Amino acid sequence: MNAPIAGYEDTPIVSLENAVEPLISFLPTIQRYAAIAKGRCKTPPADSLTLDESASIMLYSMDWKPRNECLYVALNATLRSKDRKKLEPWFLYLKLFVAALQLLPSKHQTVYRGIKADLHHQYSKGQMTVWWAFSSCTTSIDVLEEESFLGKTDQRTMFTIACSSGKDIRKHSYFPEEDEILLPAATQFKVVASLDHGEITPTHAEKTHHSSNSTNESVIVIWLDPNIDESQTSYHNMITTLQCVVSTITIFTDADQCIQFLEQITNRHILMIVSGILGVHVVPAIHNMSQTDAIFIFCGNKSRHEQWAKNWSKVNGVFTEITDLCNAIKQAVEQCDQQIISIVPNYQNLFELNPSYMYTLILKEILLEIEFDDRHIKDFTTYYRQEFADNARVLKYIAEFEREYRRHTPIWWYTFVHSSVSSMPFASIRCVSYYELENEFIFSMHTVFRIDCVEKMESNNRLWEVTLALFNDTDSQLYALAQSIREETQGPTGWHRLGKLLLKLGQFHKAKELYHTMFDKNVIDNEKSMLYHQLGLVYNGIGEYKQAIAYYEKSLEIRQKTLSSDHLDFA
């Protein structure tokens, strides 16, 4: 498992000429091609990019000989390497290049990538995989089938990828006719299907994102409008305004693709923004979907669309101003957050509580047990910079979090970063909260209440008062159930306990990532034996039995060297 891509974020943005200077020792012709790229760029560049930003993309797209000295070949080889020190000469260029890509619009679309090799055995259905390099894709099958790409003969693998973070670089590419879409480095995918069709292996994947949510993963905001023009300043202004409420908006211009996307979503709240033109036809198709929480009509003629919209209960309003739309969406997000409360009838035995409640209760204990250092903070901020690469507002928060993390209490950061839930009503946090004037009280996660009574307020017939009483933490049944799970997830450190919990939950691929990451540390033989054994359990759970046996054998080999022959483990 590679370490996160980090370090370049703190470097300044410089000219392309200065950005490539550290690369001259191993890319001797890079300055000449940088000059060609800059001279080839249109003036002024598209998408509000500077000349240096546009030229950094142009340079990435160029080919020259020898191929191993092409910028994109050398950069991507370095990104795939586990030795992150090799990235340091690239920091200035990466900063400029990534900054340019962040300014390009993103939208949900299907793209294609081809590899001249049979890779389907490496991609099993349901598997999570990370492509550490930047990945060039295309929206055109015809381009993909050209001999310089996938071709039409010999063993090949074609990836069909549903993504929302691809960057259309045609206006800045040396080869605009290739319809190139560039996927960011360190993009994570989930394999939806992998089939063997003789010479060509189609593999279907979808980009996984913490993105299509608001700050809360349970809420997804989708905007469907056939007239969205991503080249217009007004579009970017509206997206920026919306991102003050929700971190990422998934954009569709095609109604069928949008509905297909909706049908694949489960256990999420969907807030849907639809244009008036499409709303008449789309709302009837999506209204009865259980995952659709609320629909917002955004149009230019309010009175016209209010006539048909009033017949649909999930339509929360018709809006012509982006500010009014944002206020309505903010209220809807808060309502979705409040719905995430489990209510158990008083006659139900606590042993029948949702298992996810009990396991996440133990997860809280494990996270509090783990000691996090500066490296973990760096990994955390790097991860979220990649997740919210298109959101300047969130990136500003992340930079402040990284810079001032140790100056404030965790409660302060909780109320600063996660203000959408900072109004959740046991300890007073007024003195340490970002919002001191709110006189806020906060309950720990997984607090259990008993509902004492529900009464309508006399002063307001539309307002109800629910009286709650804290459930006794010493309840014998709850304690016994939690203790049972604790015993199942015992380990020498919080990281080991977390791995066992992931195995218990059937999260085998996440457990595999964790255990491989733990190998990156300096571990003694006894711990290696334990990790090999746990990896055996992981691969056994995935169904890769040969790999499982190999890890079990590695674990046994170490134990035979370090333990006496009459040890209980050999019984």
Note the overall shape: globular
**What integer is the average pLDDT?**
77
Question: Approximately what portion of the residues adopt beta-strand conformation?
Answer: 15-25%
> How many angstroms separate the termini?
34 Å
Quaternary structure state of the chains depicted: single chain
Strand order of the largest sheet: 1-4-8-7-2
Name the helicity range.
40-55%
| Structural class by secondary-structure content | alpha/beta
The CATH architecture classification of the largest domain is: 3-Layer(aba) Sandwich
- Poorly predicted spans: 197-202, 208-216, 342-352, 419-429
* CATH class wording of the largest domain: Alpha Beta
Q: What's the total helix number?
A: 20
CATH homologous superfamily designation of the largest domain: Response regulator
CATH topology of the largest domain: Rossmann fold
Main sheet properties: 5 strands, mixed
Total domain units = 5
Nearest-angstrom radius of gyration? 27 Å
Total number of strands: 17
Tell me briefly what this model is.
With 571 residues, the protein is an alpha/beta fold. The protein has 20 helices and 17 strands. The longest helix has 18 residues, at 322-339.
